[in-house]
Amino acid sequence: QLQLVESGGGLVQPGGSLRLSCEASGLPLAYYAIGWFRQAPGKEREGVSCISNIGGITNYADSWKGRFTISRDNAKNTIYLQINSQRPGDTAVYYCAASRGLVGTCVLAQRPYGYWGQGTQVTVSA
To answer: Mapped to the 3 state alphabet, what secondary structure does the chain carry?
Structure first.
């Protein structure tokens, strides 16, 4: 059984940076496409970025292109989300999720992802 644990969230000032981590245990993360999702206060959960299991294909939601970078280190069984130039609108709980069914691609829809972490809170405030 794959388990995911996010870390790296916290309080950051506007303009600052954070790197979120999603560490997997139980099975090799290399088999899975991984997505990062976020849920802002009072809003639905939405896709931010994803990376495929083969080929390192990445996708980003338009709202976060240029400031967010997803990467994976299969040797460490970890996926990262680098967030730069943070804004108050980035405040949300960030979740990582894994899909065994997506091969060589990834999507920002939630349905294909069967494994979810508990989330890590990111708060952007002065």
So the answer is: CCEEEEECCEEECCCCCEEEEEEEECCCHHHCEEEEEEECCCCCCEEEEEECCCCCCEEECHHHCCCEEEEEEHHHCEEEEEECCCCHHHCEEEEEEEECCCCCCCCCCCCCCCEECCCEEEEECC
